Amino acid sequence: MELKDKRNLSMLTDFYQLTMGNGYLENGFKDTEVIFEMFFRKVPDSGGFAIACGLQQVIEYLKNLNFTEDDIEFLRGKAIFSEEFLNYLLNFKLDLDIYAVKEGTPIFPNEPILKARGPIIQAQLIETMVLLTMNHQSLIATKAHRVKRAAKECSVMEFGSRRAQGYDAAMYGARAAYIGGVDSSANTLADKAFGVKCVGTMAHSWIQLFDSEYEAFEAYAKVYPSNTVLLVDTYNTLKLGVPNAIKLAKEFLEPKGERLKGIRIDSGDLTYLSIQAREMLDNAGCNDCKVIVSNSLDEYTIRSLRHQGARIDSFGVGERLVTAKSEPVFGGVYKLTAVEKNGVMVPRIKISDNVEKITNPGDKELYRFYDLENNKALGDVLTINGEIIDETKPYELFDELAIWKRKVLTDYRVEKLLTPIFIKGKCVYQSPTVTEIKKYCAEQLETLWEETKRFDNPQTYYVDLSQKLWDTKQELLRKGY
């Protein structure tokens, strides 16, 4: 099941979208068709790619977009909106075409993640919710995959709810983290709503409640003999915690035909403690007991622990994942790219002294090229909508800025990445389950070269323009608008 948000979020919009909407109507643009695109300019943490996430929540928002009498009265009280505009909102009916990249797809800077086509008031109005939803979940999914990649074959549990920026961030952060690659979450509601397996055993307070650590362990094992995982760092990890865990295994669990499932270490020198704990467990015949660690972990700490030879089976990763602490902003933007004039979509461009802020104009399609031999992604190309890429013929890619850098592709296939989600306001897309999205994400990530996945100095994955689109952009740059 999916989490059904019963709140009306239609008013969750930047105020300027309402003032502009009113202005569009007053200036006769109510029915003017436009195209807006969401894209981002920079991969977080200087990575090689990001992961698209959050589309399902955008769909739910658009399906339920409506303004109540109370909303209209609130806006009327601002004394700046015309009655015609307020009536437009009161009788709002979605009439947009929405195209988007599927959740779980690897994405790259400057390519459209979502495209909205339709009346300008509507296309403008949805900006805030599209951005806040997809920016947040794409950020966490991307971070989660980095963490999981650092952990390699070890499992990763998302432990960050209590440090998330609010309950929405905790819920949708757990969802995005699962899509990005983590194996489970401590968030119980995320399991109920999304099927993200919830896990957890005990906190230090359980140990402190009893007169001794061993009593605490034994009391827990009596209740959960088949799933005994013990927190061993409350007092002294190696002198008390691990020996008491071994004692419980030998004197209580094994006589009942049960095994100690795991120990968790939440503080101290995790490399040293895990190595020593592993040796103690193995010497006691608890070879199958897992060593789990937590305590302010991220992909860099996990990578360091592995390089140091830590003996760890599973990582619990909290606030540094759910808040994406190292770079907590996914810089997605939402820009107008075309305006309809006399039945034709006329390209629009934003020009800036900062080259990276110059937009790609027009009504576009996004294609990904794959090598026929190994199914690895070769690059992405933005084309003007309607251009055909003939897979039977060579295709020349070239760098948009260094145009002398060119490569001719043969033996390839192409895939159109923008999928129809809404047509004239009607949803035409059946959202997969979160587990299906997670599987799709893993499959798509396998199409990337290992060089693109590096943490340090990843190889640049190119998003190029077709010759026709490049010519259109250069013409607008020469004109200055």
According to CATH, the homologous superfamily of the domain at 15-140 and 328-479 is nicotinate phosphoribosyltransferase
Distance between the termini: 47 Å
The coarse overall form would be globular
- CATH class categorisation of the domain at 15-140 and 328-479: Alpha Beta
Helical fraction: 25-40%
For the biggest β-sheet, the strand order reads: 13-12-1-5-3-19-20
- Rounded average pLDDT: 97
Using only C-alpha atoms, the radius of gyration works out to 26 Å
DSSP summary, beta strand count = 21
Gross CATH architecture of the domain at 15-140 and 328-479: Alpha-Beta Barrel
How many separate helices?
Answer: 16
Strand content: 15-25%
Q: List low-pLDDT spans.
A: none
Secondary-structure-based class equals alpha/beta
Within the CATH hierarchy, at the fold level, what is the topology of the domain at 15-140 and 328-479? nicotinate phosphoribosyltransferase
Please outline the major beta sheet: 7 strands, antiparallel
Features:
single chain; alpha/beta; 6-stranded parallel β-sheet; 481 residues; nicotinate phosphoribosyltransferase; 7-stranded antiparallel β-sheet
Layout of helices and strands:
Layout: H1 15-26, E1 33-40, E2 50-51, H2 55-63, H3 69-76, H4 83-90, E3 97-101, E4 106-107, E5 114-119, H5 120-125, H6 127-151, E6 155-158, H7 167-180, E7 184-185, H8 188-194, H9 204-209, H10 213-223, E8 229-231, H11 237-253, E9 262-265, H12 270-283, E10 290-293, H13 299-307, E11 314-317, H14 319-322, E12 332-341, E13 344-347, E14 364-371, E15 377-384, E16 395-398, E17 406-409, E18 412-416, E19 418-423, E20 426-427, H15 434-445, E21 463-465, H16 467-479
Parallel strand pairs: 6-7, 6-11, 8-9, 9-10, 10-11, 15-21
Antiparallel strand pairs: 1-5, 1-12, 2-4, 3-5, 3-19, 12-13, 14-15, 14-18, 16-17, 19-20
Helix pairs in contact: 2-6, 3-4, 6-7, 6-13, 7-15, 10-11, 11-12
